[in-house]
Amino acid sequence: MSEFQRDKRFLTGRFKSIGFAIKGALKLATTEHSVMVQLSVAFLAILAGFYFKISREEWMVQTLATGLVLGVEGLNTAAEKIADFIHPDYHKKIGFIKDIAAGAVFFAALTAIAIACLIYIPKI
């Protein structure tokens, strides 16, 4: 069975899917500067969580916010890479698509900032 052929067996297919997901997450974390910055902010938020002894519920919300930002950033990066592959030169419609994807990251980041403010401002 070639590496890229779909594995229809349940367990081995799932393990391969997990492997591809980990490979993709590592590529995001090591090649995309925006993701590197967001991972650094996430690390600081984790440290702040331990320092301020946030509650279990606050940990859950903080974790969801972090995952939201990183997940949307991953989708934004994928959309940008596809757009660049399809049309490497500047094109108005491609620029529009990229702007919308970046806007989605912006909304996720604003949500995460609001959550961080709700958690940490009362503790400062």
Automatic annotation (TrEMBL):
Which GO cellular component does the record give, naming just one? Answer: plasma membrane
Q: According to the UniProt entry, where is the signal peptide?
A: none
Compartments annotated for it: namely: Cell membrane
Q: Required co-factor?
A: Mg(2+)
Q: Which UniProt keywords apply?
A: ATP-binding, Cell membrane, Kinase, Lipid biosynthesis, Lipid metabolism, Magnesium, Membrane, Metal-binding, Nucleotide-binding, Phospholipid biosynthesis, Phospholipid metabolism, Transferase, Transmembrane, Transmembrane helix
Residues binding substrate: 73
Annotated binding of ATP, by residue: 32, 80, 98-99
**Protein's membrane topology:** Multi-pass membrane protein
What remark does the entry make about the cofactor?
Answer: Mn(2+), Zn(2+), Cd(2+) and Co(2+) support activity to lesser extents.
UniProt binding sites for a divalent metal cation: 32, 80
Q: Which InterPro entries match?
A: DAGK, DAGK_sf, UDPK
Carries keyword Hydrolase? no
Membrane-crossing residue ranges in chain numbering: 35-52, 100-121
Q: Which family does it belong to?
A: Belongs to the bacterial diacylglycerol kinase family.
Q: What's the name of the protein?
A: Diacylglycerol kinase (ATP)
Task: Identify the species of origin.
Answer: Flavobacterium croceum DSM 17960
